[in-house]
Amino acid sequence: MNNRLKVLRAERNWSQQDLAERLGVSRQSVNAIETGKYDPSLPLAFRIADLFELTIEAIFQRD
Fold this sequence. Notes:
Order of helices and strands: EHHHHHE
Strand order of the largest sheet: 1-2
Shape: globular
Helix content: 55-70%
Largest sheet: 2 strands, antiparallel
């Protein structure tokens, strides 16, 4: 699954740690999602979408 998480985070000048704290996950989890090594759970995907005020589909796309 591809995602725009790194771009969205950079637009806000947030570090991976900043985003992790806002989402209640580890920095390593944010890194794994950004690099495509880990697909977030549905509840986490909703938290990400809510944080960026976007739909899940606007952030995550199938390969």
